[in-house]
Amino acid sequence: MENTINSEELLDRVAGDRVLLSELLEIFAHDWPAQIEAARGALARAEPEGVERAGHSLKGTLANLAATGACRLAARVEDIGRSRRLDEAKSVLMELEQELGRVTDSLALLCQGGACEDSHRR
Amino acid sequence: MKILIADDDAVSRRLLEKMLERAGYEVISVDNGRKAVEHLLSADGPRLALIDWVMPELDGPSVCHEVRKLAEKSYVYIILLTSKESKENTVEGLKAGADDYVTKPCNPEELKARLLAGLRILQLEDKLIDAREEMRFKASHDALTSLWNRGIILEFLDRELDRSRRERSFMSLLLCDVDHFKQINDVHGHPVGDEVLQRVATLLRDSLRSYDAVGRYGGEEFLILLIGCDAIRTRDRAEQLREAVANSVFATARGPLSLTVSIGALAIGDWGSSLTGPDLLKKVDEALYGAKAAGRNCVLLARPPLGEPLNSGPKVEKIPLTGR
Fold first, then answer.
1. Residue B80: which of A12, B1, B34, B91 has the closest Cα?
2. What CATH number was assigned to the domain covering residues B2-139?
3. Is position A116 within any domain?
4. What is the pTM of this model?
5. What are phi and psi of B62, to 5 degrees?
6. Tally of domains in chain A
7. ipTM reported for the complex, 2 dp
C-alpha cells in the first residue's frame, strides 16, 4: 500500500530539518481547509475556474510535501475544473479532504521523528 | 547575493527560502507577481529571481514580460518555477523572457546548479560593464591627470557656450599654465614633471564646483570652464586658483616642490555673441601669453578694446598681486 507521505523524499527535501518540517506542517494545516472551502464555494457557484485554481494550488503544495496520493487527487480536481465536468467534483473533493487529514497526521508524526521507521530512509 | 522568490504557495515559498538561505543567498520572498515586478525594478533590487508560473495579479510569464520591458538597470536572471511540463509551456515561458525553468517540486541540487549558471551570466555582464566603463573613461579622460581630455573639454565648451547664449547666463574660461615647466622637467626629470601635473590637476579639480569643468588642454595647460561666472567673479576665482597653487607645496619623488601658474581669463559676456569657441580660445590664449610676458604667477583678463570691433583682439590688463 502506498504511504501517505514519502518520508524519505520529504526529509531529503528539507535536509533532515524537523524544525522546518514543523513550520511547513503549521502552514499546511492552516492553508488546506481554506483551499477545500474555496473549491467547494466555486463548485456551488458552478465556477470551474475556481475549482481548477484550488486544485492546482493544493497540487503544488502536496507535491512539495511528497504526499503522492493526495497530490494525485488534487490534480484530478484541477483537471475536473479545467475540463468543466463538475459532476464528479463533489466526490473527488470529499476523497481529497479525507486524504488531507491523513497527510496532516503523517506530517505531525514525521515531525516528532516517528515516521522515519516507516520510510525508506536508512 | 540577493534573490527574489515569488510564489503564492506558502509551503513552497518557505521550502525555497530555507533551501536558498542554506546556499548563502539573501532571500526576499513575495506572494504575487505584482510585488515581484516592484522588487525587480527597484534601484537595488535582486538580479536573480525564481518566479512561479501560476500566481495572482500577474503570472510568471507576465512578470518576465514586465521586467524585460521596463528594466533599465542590470540584467535580471529569471528562472520560472512550473508544474507544467509540456513543451508549449516551456516555449511560452522562454519567449516571455525567462532564462531558464525548473519543474516543481525542485530538487535542491539541481536548483542550486541552475542558479550558479545564472550567476555566471550575471558575472559576465558585470565584467562587460566594467570593461565598457573603463573604455568610456579612457576615451574621455586624460591618461596622466584623469581630468577631462582635450576633446571632451572642448565639447563641453561648445555646449556650455550655446547654453549660456541661449539662456543669457554668465560663463567664463580660464587657461592655466604651469610656470617654468620645462625647467622642472630639465632639473628634476620627466617623472617629477608628470607628478607635478598630477598634483596641479588634483588641486584645480578639487577647487572647482561640481558644475564647473577642467580638462587638460595641452602639455602643461589646463582649460577651466566656470559656469554662471561674470567678469568680476571670474577675476576673483582665477586669482584664488593662482594663489592656491602658489601657496601649495607639492610632494614629489624628489621631495617637496613649490611652483606657480599663469592664468589667462575671459568672461564670454564681454565678447558679444559672434565669436565661436575656437575664437574665444584664441583670445584666452593671448591673455595667457600676456600673463607670461607680464612676469608669470599672475592672472590676466582678456577684454575687447573699447570702441574697437569685438573680434579685434584682447586688451590685457594685469591684476596686481596682493600680499606678495
1. B91
2. 3.40.50.2300
3. no
4. 0.73
5. -70, -35
6. 1
7. 0.87
